[in-house]
Structures are given as structure tokens and as C-alpha cells.
Amino acid sequence: MTAQSAPVDADFPALDDQLCFALYTATHRITRAYRPLLEPLGLTYVQYLVMLVLWEAAPRSVGELGQALYLDSGTLTPLLKRMEKAGMVTRQRDNNDERRVLIHLTEHGASLKSQARNIQDELLCRMELTREQSRELKVRVMTLIDKLEDH
Q1: Is beta strand 89-94 parallel, antiparallel or unpaired with respect to 60-61?
Q2: For the residues of 94-111, what is the DSSP string, one character each?
Q3: Which domains does the chain have, with CATH numbers?
Q4: Nearest to 70 by CA among 83, 85, 90, 53
Q5: Among 12, 71, 75, 137, which residue's Cβ finds the most Cβ atoms within 10 Å?
């Protein structure tokens, strides 16, 4: 018995017409493009995102990291434990509020910043985007994220 193709429904959008699929595919491709740039630093893509937040200002609470990265503590905690084991960060209870865990950069974690300085430019070059084009695209995507947050 052979499988039959479903009839084409001209009124129903095809996969290639779906914005969500284009964004999903772009996300995976971008993450994959970062991999060879981050491997020499010993970072995964998500660890790199954590480090970007910490390089801006540290220490940060797990909650602050989660808010900045749109990640919950259940996702962040194992990630931060691995980063602590790798010597990039330390986790310490806040002396003023025992419920809060503060994430500090180690000397090694702080030193990775200078090594990561050109990663964004390298990726933009691979994507053949200028910084201005990247900013414009980011603004459009963040607007989309904000609109979806409202729903």
C-alpha cells in the first residue's frame, strides 16, 4: 500500500510561507555559525549569552540573568553549575537575601571578554550584514517579541 499525498489546499499557507519557520531556521543557523567562533573560548552559545550579560555588569542574580535572557531558573541553574565547574563563574547566596543567588565572574570568566571581542563582527561578516543592518533587523525582531509578549 502506498501513501497518498494530501490534496493541495491553496488557501492554507505552505511551510515556506510561515514567518515562524524562517525565524526558527535562522535561529538554528546562527547558533551553528557561532559554534566554531566560541569553541576556542570553551563556550556554548547559551553560555556566551550569559557571559555577555555578566560582562556588562556583574554580579547579577539568577533572576536578573533569566529576565535579560528570557530564560527561567530551571534552565539557568544547570547551565550556571556547568559554567561554575568550568571556572567561568561562581554562585553565591546574597548576604542580604538568602533566597537570591548571585553570579560572579571569575578571573578566567572576565578574561574571556577580550577574546570574545570580535565574535559579533566575525558573525556579521559571515552573514554579509553591516552593523546598521544588524541593528535594524534586531529592532524589528525585538518589536515582534514585544508584541508577542502582550499576547
Answers
A1: unpaired
A2: ETTEEEEEEEEE-HHHHH
A3: 19-117 (1.10.10.10), 118-151 (no CATH)
A4: 53
A5: 71
